[in-house]
Every structure is written in C-alpha cells, then in structure tokens.
Specification:
single chain, alpha/beta, 7 strands, 50% helix, globular, disordered N terminus
C-alpha cells in the first residue's frame, strides 16, 4: 500500500504554515491605519498637557517656603448666587490673606470677570477686607477673563514682576505655566480641591487636558 501524500506534511510545509500564521495574526491594514491615527491624535492632544504640567509643577512651593514677592495673585473661581465667593474661591482668598499677613508680599491682586451686576474682583476684595487685608493693599483686575489674561495683565497693567499664585492644586501647574511664559517670575501655592460634589473635582481635572492645549496656543498667539 502506498502512502497518501495528502495525509501528511510535505516538504517545506511547516515554513508555509508559519508564514500563513504570521499573515493571519496581523491586524488588517485598515485597522492598523486607524490605530496609528488614533495614537497620533492622542500624542498630539497629550503633548501640550505634558509640557504644561512639567513646567508648572517645577515651580510649585509650600506656603512656608515661598520667598518675598511683589504680589500674591488670586485667580477668580466664580461667585455664589448671592454674590459671595464660591467655596473654591474662598479657599484661594483665605490662603492669600494668610500669605499677606505673613509678609510674603505687600499687595494682593484679585483677578476675574466683571460685567453688569457680576463683579468677581469686587466680591474678592470684600472677602479679603473682612480678613484683615487693608484696602490699599488690594489690586483689582476686572479683565481677568481667563488664566492667560490674568497673568499677562499682572505684568503689563500692574507692573508685577514676581508673584505667588494661589489656586486649586489641579489648576496650579497650568496657571504657573501661563504666568511664566507671560514674563512673570511666579511660584505657586495650591489649595484644597475637596468638594461636596466629588464628580466636579474629577471633571475639573479632566478639563485640564484641553485647557493645556489652549494655554500653549495662548502663549504663542496672544
């Protein structure tokens, strides 16, 4: 009886099988293109965030370690319906009042939005006055519509060259990045991000990714 040549492996069949296996194990070309594009987009989105975080975090300081500066800069964080500072903003203002009381800076710059009956810097000023900061030590910037505007105006409109920036921990690296590219010799002190609505704290952190891209674009174009 002769052997049936179709029942067993012929010469070189193992190499053929291996090549076939390699071809079938690779993703189809359209899928590879999609994955490559997705990875490229992710890199482009995350690159500004990485840069902003690296620059900003290198200038974060502890409250007891900040050097003497021209001013403490407080960025706005919204008002309550009654016109008083929001919880996040109160924490920033309380930290600023403490830094002023310790003689870190002779002035506190409060910067935020003001239009119609909404006056964020005015509300911030009232809060600081209640905490012992004298009126002649408070500088009001009513055109601090965003972080970049606050930083650039601190230099161009108020002549500040060095500052301690006070804001929430998640926001601090971006604020320091914007202030330093604006020419402000800034260090930063972070305050609590604890919230009665924890999802908001998560949202604010996620929002820092696209906000970092805007910060880089603002640094280049504004």
């Amino acid at each position: 009886m002769t052997d049936d040549p179709t029942t067993g492996p012929g010469p070189g069949s193992s190499g053929t099988d291996a090549r076939v296996a390699r071809r079938t194990s690779r993703p189809p070309r359209p899928r590879r293109v999609v994955l490559t594009c997705a990875a490229t987009v992710a890199a482009l989105v995350l690159a500004p965030f990485v840069v902003v975080q690296r620059v900003g975090r290198s200038h974060v300081a502890q409250p007891d370690d900040v050097p003497a500066s021209d001013a403490v800069v407080v960025l706005g964080a919204g008002l309550r319906p009654d016109g008083s500072p929001s919880t996040y903003l109160r924490r920033r203002l309380d930290a600023a009042a403490d830094l002023y009381a310790r003689g870190v800076a002779p002035a506190v710059l409060v910067s935020g939005d003001a239009h119609d009956d909404y006056d964020e810097p005015g509300s911030m000023r009232a809060w600081l006055l209640d905490r012992g900061v004298p009126d002649d030590a408070i500088l009001l910037d009513r055109e601090g519509y965003d972080t970049h505007a606050t930083c650039t105006r601190a230099v161009s409109e108020f002549g500040i060259s060095s500052a301690v920036v006070v804001t929430q921990d998640y926001h601090l690296p971006r604020a320091l990045f914007s202030c330093r590219v604006a020419g402000l010799d800034a260090l930063g002190v972070g305050v609590s991000t604890t919230s009665v609505e924890p999802w908001k704290a998560v949202l604010y952190r996620v929002r820092e990714v696209p906000a970092a891209t805007k910060a880089v674009l603002d640094a280049v174009t504004r």
